[in-house]
Amino acid sequence: MRTLIAATVLGVGLSGAALAKDIVDTAVGAGNFKTLATALQAAGLVETLKGPGPFTVFAPTDAAFAKVPKAQLDALLADKAALSKVLTYHVVPGKVMAKDVKAGKVKTVQGSELTVATAGGVTVDGAKVTSTDIAADNGVIHVIDTVVMPK
């Protein structure tokens, strides 16, 4: 007890462990996923992506969402079911690091398959992967430059 009190008084923590960040907190902290965070909230998927996972998320940036025509994006944000389908299409079960990515089809949480290509840089359904291996304690984020839509 004395050690705990002394550590508290001195402002020293007993464990040096950093606060863990899940996929959502990691994306929000990055600063360029504001639209994605808003969409996850609107679709009711925040708690899911804060869950144990692991998840691999192909995360479109704000610039990627800006490529979607405003009327289409507004309609999507207003339709929770459609929005959920689109967002879960960006999520693959498991933690797949860049070094483990292989060309081919990969099943998404939404149920459809994404097509991953590795020739000349990695793409997911044609969206270019611009940054990889952003680690979270319940998975990994790979940044993409385009919002991909399920078929």
Number of discrete domains: 1
Question: Strand fraction band?
Answer: 15-25%
CATH class: Mainly Beta
By CATH's scheme, which homologous superfamily applies?
FAS1 domain
Q: Kindly report the CATH topology.
A: FAS1 domain
What percent of residues adopt helix (DSSP H or I)? 25-40%
Order of helices and strands: HHHHEHHHEEEEEE
First-residue to last-residue Cα separation: 60 Å
Question: Given the structure, what is the number of helices?
Answer: 7
Radius of gyration: 18 Å
* Average pLDDT for all residues: 86
Largest β-sheet summary: 7 strands, mixed
Strand order of the largest sheet: 2-1-7-6-5-4-3
CATH architecture: Roll
Number of strands: 7
Low-pLDDT parts are 1-19
Find the structural class using helix and strand composition: alpha+beta
Shape field = globular
How would you sum up this structure, described in words?
Helix content is 36%, strand content 24%. It is α+β, with helices and mostly antiparallel strands and 151 residues long. It has a single domain (19-144), classed as Roll (FAS1 domain), CATH 2.30.180. A 7-stranded mixed sheet has the order 2-1-7-6-5-4-3. Strand 3 (104-107) and strand 4 form a beta hairpin. Helix 3 packs across helix 7 (80-88). Residues 1-19 have low confidence and may be disordered.
